[in-house]
Amino acid sequence: MISWQEVQNKARTPGSVVLKQWMAQREATRIQNATHSLTDGTRGSELYSWLVDGLSSAGKPVNEQTALSVSAVYACIGIIGGAIASMPFHIYKRTEDGRERTTHDLWWFFNESPHPSWTASAFWEYIAQSRLFHGDAFARIHRASRLSPKIVSIEPLHPSAVTVEQVDGLLRYTIIDDDATLVTIDQGDMLHIPGIGFNGQRSISVLRHALRTSAGTALAADEYSASFFANSARPDFILTTDEKMSTDTINDLRSQWQAKYGGSARSHLPAVLQGGMKAQQLTMNSEDAQLLATRQFQVEDICRIFGVPPFMVGHQEKTSSWGQGIEQLGISFVKYTLQRHLRPIEQEINRKIWPRSAGYFAEFNTAGLERGDLKTRYEAYRVAIGRAGEPGFMTVNEARRIENMKPIPGGDQLHTGTNDGQNATATGAE
């Protein structure tokens, strides 16, 4: 590298070869430094995205940020995460007769705020997004002390910030704490909710496998669509003339035409041609390019990956195999989509939070999503309470509790099938 002092000594006149060489070297260094982040593998660079998440077959890096820019992915993540966040998480105690709902100190964590920085709804949506994107979801259990079983908070962690290894048959987790120090967490202090392909340590990343091609193709289709409409959604055309033109003339004409008529803002300006030149439009439309068909297929493919029916993300279909009516749709969504996420969450929480001897367990209450319309619910209550002399299996107050109504005196009597009420059996309130 030539120093600036050498340049001053040797380059006294403009146009000096030494000065030009030094300027060229300095410009090359500046460009290299400016683009260094693209190739050094630092977080946020293109190389980092390629190494961590991988380029799709369409040539687009697929990570959390780029995937969420696809409307179908955003809708599926929002629907599943929002549904889980909207369901109450009840705590029960095992009894000789079965179970009963109980008031537990941990109810606040799972239904209101698990951590000072998180609400319960944001916590559940983050857990769902982590599992849907990375296959695993993690949440650290903070206890009062190392020797105390008392839980003071539950903090969600990003899957990429957690390292998992198996030691003596147990899992050990390593994270970077707020003060940039490595922290090792025992298996009992980490909620680890695995997904498909769990090998005892980690699950398969949905981003790097299932979504890699589908979301990448959708990103490429979106980019092509945007550029297509930026050009006023008009196909390309050619300029023809009988005169022979040099290469420089052709390049100048192309540049002038683009500057004058390029872009949607200038697409309707009248073109003025001289010297017998003619404009001929090429016959290419969006259907020939399969733009619309590709975009529609990618919506269905992404919904297939997440298990969400396409109509729930606004993709209208002529027929649906999910049943008819809100009740059937809600039941099908809970049964075939949400249960894939609810059961792993419940099992992990129950085995990490409460030992077997405690007799407690927790479940999501899916009744709100499975409720039918008003007429259907009331007819079901009539059958459950007992009608036309038939015995019932639910009391009036039990039905009122489901509808968030106050109990009434005598509403805990179970109808046994008699019309005079003399043989009704008192069951007592729950």
From TrEMBL:
Q: Does the keyword Membrane apply?
A: yes
Which residues lie within the region annotated Disordered?
A: 405-430
Does the keyword field hold Calcium? no
Q: Where are the transmembrane segments?
A: 72-92
Arranged from A to Z, the UniProt key words for this protein are:
Membrane, Transmembrane, Transmembrane helix
Q: Which InterPro entries match?
A: Phage/GTA_portal, Portal_HK97
Instruction: Write one Pfam family the protein is assigned to.
Output: Phage_portal
Name the residue ranges with Polar residues bias: 415-430
What name appears for this protein in its UniProt entry?
A: HK97 family phage portal protein
- Which organism does this sequence originate in? Nitrosomonas eutropha
